[in-house]
Specification:
alpha+beta, 248 residues, DNA-binding, 8 helices, four-stranded antiparallel sheet, 10 strands, homodimer, three-stranded antiparallel sheet
Chain lengths: 248, 248
DNA sequence: CGTCTAATTGAAGCATCTCAACATGCGTGG
DNA sequence: CCACGCATGTTGAGATGCTTCAATTAGACG
């Protein structure tokens, strides 16, 4: 347990994230900062929870990147969401006991595991926190819908530009990105698995976006050279992220 | 308001749906059956709520079919979910005030509009109902994820077979389908818009599925001739629907 | 420095799209 | 009850965005 007057960095991350999507009272924030966390370090490319499991904890990402994914019988992978510090990607396990997908790390991750019981207790006492957590899962769903629109109806160029916009806005909201600059630890294979594209095609499209002067930077460091242009290229409108205030 | 001892057919539909995903006590069911409903009839192909609006009610489908969708700037449409009697497709508006997508009818629909205030009141008093509703929105999200996997990584044949399996299992669960037979009021254009395919291709694939003796029946009446075969063709596993008991 | 992962490039193939015509069926009004 | 009209389904042919395979280069790290 942590001291509510001086929340641990992990709790601060969680509170900061929740504040991007909901308006919490001081009492609610304090209640959140009392959540028990069992902190653990995880290697890159390892599963946090696997499809079929029935977890007894939720996982708060404290540092690093994770993703939710499914693997099909032919070995193809579909990544369904990316998650960074402050996210609780398996919050749904509170009400959907058995995992219908896997949660894995993309980088080394430090995570805080919160017993389901503690969250249930919290929701029993704090309706405002319940609403915020429910809202968080609803925003997840909104992002799934937007990705669905992308893979269903958008071109590869639009999809990639859109994803870059989304990740940037989300990271900026929780203070993980500087202005028009972010550390994006995604390989082109991972981008392809998220967007329903081959890594070869992702590569070529990224080159196009760089050639069009929309983005620059190789590898993890990504610079957005033309923010309006990138949004336009990706047909991006941040409404679906339902943030309380948007990054410029 | 309705008599809790004799819930209206509309309330019965809702309760029946909730019972497919959660275990409700008699008291909880009674509380649900006291929800005020403003019943209205809607024409086919009309919007119930449109993207950008800030609804003050949630919409319970009592009869007919509806879908959630987005329209892109080039006029392309992506359908993100189908809904039948018992569903509350815009339940998320309770915590995400502005609609990031539209909800429209596919057939003539009779719908019951429930004031947000009444649902909020209900959730304040009945934690079990809150959990059931939250769970419902989480299952929605699980279905979005599965569709995402479909459009991202599955072939047209798999996608169509998968969708038929999903709709059948959901309709069977709430008593809207007979064994291996259902009334599916979807045009091939609508199927295409849901699956990220052209209607031309949907047509050809449906012919293949009929030729392979997996399904039969023209137009709305759809018969599943080979249920194991169809599930196999669609790589279908109902786990993600998180139903309390599955249809055979 | 060698090793391993990730990024890049080229070439050939194909699943699906687009366009455009035609068929079918069904509701409606004459 | 028939004839028209419109939505839906069906078919063919040509175009294409993306994939696959396979090889090469670049970059990071001990």
């Amino acid at each position: 347990l942590s001291n509510p007057l001086h929340p641990s960095p992990a709790h601060q991350r969680l509170i900061r994230k929740l504040e991007t999507i909901a308006d919490l009272t001081a009492g609610e924030k304090q209640a959140v900062s009392l959540l028990p966390l069992e902190i653990r370090s995880l290697a890159a490319d390892s599963d946090i929870v696997s499809e079929g499991e029935v977890p007894s904890h939720c996982c708060l990402i404290i540092e690093g990147f994770a993703c939710r994914y499914k693997v099909l019988n032919e070995g193809q992978r579909q990544i369904m969401s990316f998650h960074c510090a402050g996210d609780i990607p398996d919050l749904q396990s509170l009400h959907l006991p058995t995992m219908d997908h896997s949660l894995g790390t993309l980088t080394p991750v430090t995570a805080g595991f919160i017993p389901h019981g503690a969250i249930r207790e919290l929701t029993r006492r704090e309706p405002g926190v319940t609403a915020a957590l429910w809202r968080d899962t609803l925003i997840d769903a909104a992002v799934f819908r937007e990705w669905l629109v992308g893979v269903g109806r958008r071109s590869a160029h639009e999809r990639i530009a859109h994803l870059l916009c989304e990740v940037y806005v989300k990271m900026r909201a929780v203070g993980l990105a500087e202005e028009h600059r972010m550390d994006l630890p995604l390989t082109q294979v991972e981008l392809g698995d998220a967007l329903g594209l081959s890594s070869v095609h992702v590569n070529r499209v990224l080159q196009d976006l760089r050639a069009a002067n929309l983005i620059s930077g190789r590898g993890r460091q990504t610079v957005i050279e033309d923010w309006p242009g990138l949004q336009h290229a990706g047909d991006f409108d941040a409404t679906y992220l339902h943030l309380r205030k948007l990054a410029a």
